[in-house]
Q: What sequence folds into this?
């Protein structure tokens, strides 16, 4: 991918204003899908438009830990442990509240797809961290959600949260994840052990941006090449970096929140 001609992304403004599946008066329904299809048919071969549904995972044990101990103490000490006080920090799982937040997302999608006729995601991506896979499955793996395309979550290493030092951002082994989420798709190159997390070095915000440029480039050119509607389940820091790459203003998401981004991508050079 590194030798490919770069893609320049920008956000198409004036459509989505909120951090959930609600939209403004632009009528985000089947008519929007026709509009987007027409836009892509009329565009040059170098330009494509897509809608990204960027979802943050539900509350995890690590979120509770940071709230319990305070951010300073969390960063200095508690985040480096595998767990404490009945909380599981390593590759943190969803709490009961986190599961409920994902169930709320599930109900929202049922309403949006059934009543509002919102276009269905055509391809699904997720971070390989456990809480994201849990969130994606709870949200979409439900026969009552009328998806137009099969829910097969593509697990993508590059979509993970800021890595290093904090054990919540280390991932489980590939064999553990495959056993827990048998319907997920793992690329053949997906490593058995975590290739990114280190106990002594934490990735910086500046380092995350090129990682997510590469991630979005691979999504744009890969399985989502012919897809106009893309679902991504990830993390607060990950979504913050993606929004920068996509030319979107900063948008804070609570656990379980969603931001919808209308993106124009152009091959440059």
A:
């Amino acid at each position: 991918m590194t030798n490919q001609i770069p893609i320049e992304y920008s956000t198409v403004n004036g459509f989505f204003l909120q951090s959930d599946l609600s939209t403004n008066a632009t009528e985000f329904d089947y008519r929007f899908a026709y509009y987007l299809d027409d836009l892509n048919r009329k565009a040059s071969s170098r330009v494509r438009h897509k809608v990204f549904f960027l979802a943050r995972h539900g509350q995890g044990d690590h979120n509770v830990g940071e709230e319990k101990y305070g951010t300073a103490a969390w960063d200095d000490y508690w985040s480096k442990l595998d767990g404490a006080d009945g909380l599981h920090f390593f590759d943190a799982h969803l709490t009961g509240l986190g599961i409920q937040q994902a169930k709320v997302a599930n109900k929202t999608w049922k309403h949006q797809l059934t009543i509002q006729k919102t276009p269905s995601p055509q391809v699904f991506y997720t971070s390989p961290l456990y809480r994201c896979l849990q969130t994606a499955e709870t949200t979409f793996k439900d026969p009552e959600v009328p998806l137009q395309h099969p829910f097969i979550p593509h697990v993508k290493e590059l979509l993970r949260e800021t890595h290093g030092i904090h054990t919540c951002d280390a991932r489980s082994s590939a064999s553990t994840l495959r056993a827990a989420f048998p319907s997920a798709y793992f690329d053949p190159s997906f490593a058995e052990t975590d290739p990114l997390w280190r106990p002594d070095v934490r990735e910086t915000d500046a380092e995350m941006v090129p990682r997510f440029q590469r991630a979005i480039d691979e999504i744009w050119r890969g399985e989502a090449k012919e897809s106009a509607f893309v679902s991504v389940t990830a993390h607060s820091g990950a979504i913050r970096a993606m929004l920068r790459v996509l030319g979107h203003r900063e948008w804070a998401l609570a656990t379980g929140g969603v931001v919808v981004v209308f993106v124009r991508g152009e091959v440059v050079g």
Q: What stands out?
A: The chain is about 35% helix and 15% strand. The radius of gyration is 18 Å.
